[in-house]
Write a structure and sequence with these properties.
Largest sheet: none
Helix content: over 70%
Structural class: mainly alpha
Radius of gyration: 19 Å
Strand content: under 5%
Order of helices and strands: HH
Number of strands: 0
Distance between the termini: 49 Å
Length: 66
């Protein structure tokens, strides 16, 4: 698509967020971002496990003891 076309949706996202907050009269909530980050990390972890399994590498859960 190119740089200009890919930048447009990214530039509009903050505007959509602000519009939603103003029209619904809601405040910014940092827990939404933390929840989204947790979901992203979990999705990446599952994808990594699937790739390792596909390549024949066994993954073993290791519990860290401090």
């Amino acid at each position: 698509m190119g740089t200009p076309k890919s930048m447009t949706p990214a530039a509009h996202k903050p505007g959509r967020i602000v519009y939603h907050m103003v029209t619904n009269k809601t405040e910014s909530d940092a827990s939404v971002f933390q929840d989204q980050e947790r979901k992203t990390q979990n999705r990446k972890r599952l994808k990594l496990f699937a790739q390792a399994r596909e390549l024949g590498f066994p993954l073993v859960h290791v519990e860290v003891v401090s």
